[in-house]
Amino acid sequence: MVSFFDLPRSIREEIYRHALVKARVFVRPFISMEYMLHPDRAKIYDNPNIALLCASHRIYHEAKPIYLGENIFSIVQVDMLAAARMENRRVAKNLRQIRRLELIFDNRDYKYMAESLGTEIPTVMTEVEDWADESSAKKVAMRDLGEMRDHFDIRQRKQLNHHLHQHKNDNKETPHDRLTENLKKYLWGRTLTFVRQTFRLTHLFIDLRHCTCPVGCCRLADQVLDWGWVYVWIHGLPDEVQVRGSSRSEKEVIARSLDRQSFHFKLKIDEVYDQSRAQDYRGLMQYNVLLRSVYRKLNENITAG
Description:
- The protein has helices spanning 9-20, 33-36, 41-44, 57-70, 79-87, 89-95, 107-131, 136-151, 154-158, 160-166, 175-198, 248-260, 269-272, 281-285, 288-304, and strands at 25-26, 73-75, 100-104, 203-207, 240-244.
- It is of the alpha/beta class.
- Helix 1 packs across helix 4 (57-70), helix 5 (79-87) crosses helix 6 (89-95) and helix 7 runs antiparallel to helix 8.
- It is globular, with a radius of gyration of 21 Å.
- The model is unreliable at 281-285 (pLDDT under 50).
- InterPro entries: AN11006-like.
């Protein structure tokens, strides 16, 4: 009796590609609004048939390198992924096999993330307060969650235009400045730090068409790749970088920025990472349960919607 494995390896790999390699693979729960708002997204961005990887051990080992190595993975915000990597060796191993990555620097993603997290964080705080054992980690987590809740205050964004004009010539920090710093810290900065630490890429795709402050009044594309507290690509720069939606002058600034981020052993510590922002590994571990709670609630909301 003829079986699937009697087919030549090259034919089997083409079958794997047909099932698993798509235009984009989105790392959930956050998907960029660039694709969420696309009128033909269901037709263009269909999901890979991940069930194929569960068919047998042999198919898994043959097909997984194609799935991880040939797809373009689109990442918006990485906290959940960072927590999963630290908890699960398989996740960490799989991430090291990804070769193509897309980063979309879109201010609309911050608005969506802020509204989602701003809604869920109070519930998570209540659960932690009620169920977590009293400890220093709990106190730190509650403090940091409270700060995030305040940062993602929806009312603050609704009042932004009024304050922006009111403080136009004022040297004090405005709501506009705070929201831009939030965008850097919680969305783009964290993402870039994680990407530089984790991946050994052949291709990096960068979309800068909506790379502005949360209000849209400040173009940020000429500085975006300098953010994050890790300054260098630990596993080496991508072999190829494709930038979309930037001017010639912005491309030149980005190219110079990438040139500075090549890792070599003669670099000083402060040239590798920002010591004031770097967090200890054990400190990151204490937030894993909280991140899983947010992730679960977001997925429940997506499913219910």
